[in-house]
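Continuing the series of single-chain predictions for the mutant panel. This is the parent chain; the variants come on the following pages.
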Amino acid sequence: MPSTRTYAPRGALVFDTRLLGRQAGSALTQTRTVPAPEDLRLELVGVPVGADVALDVRFEAVSEGVLATGTATAPLAGECARCLAPLTSSVTASFQELYLYTDKHDKYHEKHDKHEKHDRHQEHHEHEEQDDEERYLDGDLLDLEPAFRDAVVLALPMSPLCREDCPGLCAECGVPLADAGPGHRHDAAVDPRWAALQQLSEQGDDKHQDRRTGAIDLQEG
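Parent structure:
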């Protein structure tokens, strides 16, 4: 089928699969611009809430359900991990998720309700753990947000940089080294253990200078 393009500001990550049908092998591609949901971020960088995110998703009908494969491209805003300067960038995340038909889930429980109580309890517990890892269609509706959210957050940089060769901050004064220039430096600090000795030496130099000046004055006089 040809691609369809829509803009969906509300329920933007919920897709209707009725046009796809259930015949295995049928496919549908949708391109959509959606507002970014909340909490798509790490400590230093994230996707601004409400920012436009470009989605390109291919839906394919398989025997168990619908396979969703796509990419999301989103703007980023944050601060550099080295110099703490504000930065803007973008991220592209890929994802693939299988959404099972709801009736497949119901048939599983109908089948296993016939087993012995002990076995049913054990298998039910195992199946609940499996459910936590599986996603299901809600009738004909497919909610892409959990898969989309996981993919985008995993693609965010842990240590974002304003530029690849960012020199960071001066360890002495904290000024950004990129602004300070190559000649930026600090004189070595005097070791506190030698500070008293240096002070005595300076005082001795001053007294020596005073005696020399007095001697010159006497000679001239």
